[in-house]
Amino acid sequence: MEYTLQLTDEIALQKDDLATYEGAAFTGEEYYLTVPLEHSIHIYGADFTFFTSCTCPHAYAAICYDSINYCFWVSDAQQHNVVYCLDSDLNELQCFYVQMNLTGDIQQIAYQEERDTLLLSYTDGIAEITKNGEFLHKCPLPLPVCHTALPFADAFALIRISQNMSFFDIVSSQGDMLESYDLPLEGVIKDMLWDHDKMATGSSLCFLLLLQKPDGCCFCRCILKPCTCKQPCCCEMDCKTDCICKLLSSIACMEAALSHILNAEGEKLQRAIALSDSICELLEVNRSIIQTITNVTMLEQVLYAKLTAIQERQNDVSCE
């Protein structure tokens, strides 16, 4: 089944000053937005009206709400890989250092209620840890430009930012790209939250994007829903063009992933030549690289066949 992503409305966050928000969490009643430059957290009601601001001892950036223990988990913008636990009054309860072999600082934090664990988003992957900092699982990403990720069934929904363009992706727990959608937004995406109230009333996937614009911050509501259009087409975009664009976008993502794989194999060979003094080890590395190249070549043939099919059927695609 085809799906369409719609940006339904923007909700401006009314406050006197133009705060620079970094992270957002929703407790079911209130929104908590971090302002690391001010060492504060701003609290908004469920109707997005400003309630109060709390001064914090550290520059909290990423934030999520723990719905089992009724507390918050936050990262520190000034201390690499440090995570704090805050109670419902935003008092610090504990902190720990995350030892992680991933690129950069923690981008965002999400709480995974089904497993009672935390998901840490990094530029090139997603890490699952316990609530005392113990490493559980690492999910590498096919396109390493992740900004924020949320648990979604047995997969992840994430925001990917690449070359000044934003995408909403669904990635498997093994790091395979399942779906990808363009986000034609003006401004900088800071965080993403599930819009559970909207999802409770229908079958669509609804989420909120915290968006920083020159004139202030807002939430943008997005809906991913099945395309049930009939002739004449009722979609925002012509279905024929939309289907072709999605196929091409999917192929482009796969091509980019294959490029990363080949680059990694080249680096593997260079390291092996530089570090190994055994011909047997070099031959084993070489055999592994040859197998990878063979697999990539087969995938390239599949992608070429898809492009050929698109070309042949371009004038025949219709919305059913």
Please explain how this structure is put together.
The protein has 2 domains: 3-226, Neuraminidase; 239-313. The protein has a 4-stranded antiparallel β-sheet. A 4-stranded antiparallel β-sheet has the order 2-3-4-5, with no helix packed on it. Strands 6-7-8-9 form a 4-stranded antiparallel β-sheet, with no helix packed on it. Helices cover 24% and strands 42% of the residues. The protein has helices at 196-199, 239-275, 279-313; strands at 3-12, 24-26, 30-35, 40-45, 50-55, 60-66, 71-76, 82-86, 92-97, 108-112, 117-122, 125-129, 135-140, 146-152, 155-162, 165-172, 177-183, 188-194, 205-213, 216-226. Helix 2 (239-275) packs antiparallel against helix 3 (279-313). The protein contains 3 helices and 20 strands.
